[in-house]
Amino acid sequence: MKQFIVLGLGRFGSAVATTLVELGHEVLGVDNDEEIVNALKDKITQAVQADITEERVLKELGVKNFDAAIVSIATNLETSILVTMMLKEVGLKYIIAKAQNNLHAKVLEKIGVNKVVFPERDMGARIARRLITPNIKDYVELEPDYNIIEIEALPEFIDKTLSELDMRNKYEINVLAIKRNDGVNISPRAKDVIKKGDFLIVIGEAKKINKLAGKSNK
What we know:
This protein is an alpha/beta fold.
């Protein structure tokens, strides 16, 4: 279990926060809007109303003790940059920040944000899943109970054939393709061998996918 702090609980921030909780992690959500905080208080671990532009507040929230922060301030670019700088100053090691445009993104990168995201391009739920399963390169939700992911081959997969791995019976998922360097094997055969650095594109039920993703994060 990891601990995350989400600063700004608009549509994007709320999506990240609630998805992280659904995946079994602890989330502190912070917003200056009391109505938003009240709407989320029963959906995430803890939601508090606070002015995050004050460094004192960030320190009182213990931000440096979290595994990662998601800065999801919706409208004010200056506030977004200020809060991000303060997070860096208090020692938080991993920061994801939402950008409004390319210029905003460049500034965030200059001050040391680990990952910049654009809400229009990166849905909150997808970002949340990547946070807790870094070996997943991409994720597509076909429907609530059925997903496709691109995941780096686990150590126990290396130098074994698909037949030996028997993923259909062991994990109840199917391998659609194998990506190696710049090539893609879109019709993998049972005798194909998985190599270190390969990415597997697999399809299956969400709970089975999450089980495999959990193994990749250990």
